[in-house]
From TrEMBL:
Keywords in alphabetical order: Cell membrane, Membrane, Transmembrane, Transmembrane helix, Transport
Keyword Zinc on entry: no
Membrane-crossing residue ranges in chain numbering: 7-29, 67-91, 103-123, 135-152, 190-210, 235-255
Full protein name: Sugar ABC transporter permease
Residues forming coiled coils: none
KW Transmembrane helix (keyword) present: yes
Source species: Nonomuraea aridisoli
Length: 271
């Protein structure tokens, strides 16, 4: 039996993988170079094995404190987003109320609005609340999102209506149905949304730079941005910090990628 030749597909996939991994390899190479080597033209493609660059990052910025800030912010944002988005998604998918379709359309319209448009209003709100240079200024704007509501709504729509009817016959109210029956069944969606939220929050840069100027209250992304000088940047130090900051997300994605792919793929099963 003649089998189709699959080697061209494997070659294309391998080439794509090399293109995707090349920036990470270059990041490690530069992180291990001296400053003169990193500025050479043409560039030097081999490391100088300058391991002290990684220690210098911790001496230049409070990286440990910024790492702790990032973990606290991500944990709070992820927990709040999963709770509020799942509540909204349950209401749009399982409850019947006037204007449900129109309100959900407005929710989706928010996805087409650039996030930069909300930058000044959000900043003014933080000023009025006295939240500048605080972690709550980083947490509050991220605890709800239209995309998370849409994603989880798709999961709730796949569940049979008989579950609601059976629970109502047993005397369960909508909140009990949501918490005890529906929420455990949409666990793949919660995992996918949680992982996406972690990755987005970890790499978020613009808002942390605007709302916090104290290095002790910055996240990792904003702290690393502060390593860029006005006239000159020590690229080995900057790349070493970027390597340290990206490692936890890479490990998390490698462990959880199966759940992420399954969750995203499952959202298109029902409209």
């Amino acid at each position: 039996m003649n089998r189709p030749r699959t080697w061209p597909a494997y070659v294309a996939l391998a080439a794509g993988a090399l293109v995707m991994i090349a920036p990470f390899v270059w990041q490690i190479v530069v992180a291990l170079q001296t400053l003169p080597d990193s500025l050479r033209v043409p560039p030097k493609f081999t490391p100088s094995w300058q391991w002290s660059n990684f220690a210098e990052v911790f001496r230049t910025v409070p990286l440990a404190r910024q790492f702790l800030n990032t973990v606290v912010v991500i944990a709070a944002v992820t927990a709040g987003l999963l709770l509020l988005c799942s509540l909204a998604a349950f209401a749009f998918a399982r409850l019947r109320f006037p204007g449900r379709g129109g309100i959900f359309t407005l929710f989706l319209a928010v996805l087409m609005v650039p996030g930069e448009l909300f930058l000044i209003p959000r900043y003014e709100i933080m000023v009025d609340l006295g939240w500048l240079d605080t972690l709550q200024a980083l947490i509050a704007p991220g605890v709800f999102g239209a995309f998370g509501t849409f994603l989880l709504r798709q999961f709730f729509l796949t569940l049979p209506r008989e579950l609601d009817e059976a629970a109502q016959l047993e005397g369960a109210n909508p909140l009990q149905i949501y918490w005890h029956i529906m929420l455990p069944l949409v666990r793949p969606g919660l995992l996918a949304l949680g992982l996406l939220t972690v990755m987005w929050s970890w790499s978020s840069l613009l808002w942390p730079l605007v709302v916090n100027t104290d290095p002790e209250m910055m996240t990792l992304s904003a702290g690393l941005a502060s390593l860029r000088g006005q006239f000159q940047t020590n690229f080995p130090i900057l790349f070493a910090g970027a390597a340290v900051a990206s490692l936890p997300v890479i490990v998390l994605f490698a462990v959880m990628q199966r759940h992420l792919i399954a969750g995203i793929a499952f959202t298109g099963s029902k409209g």
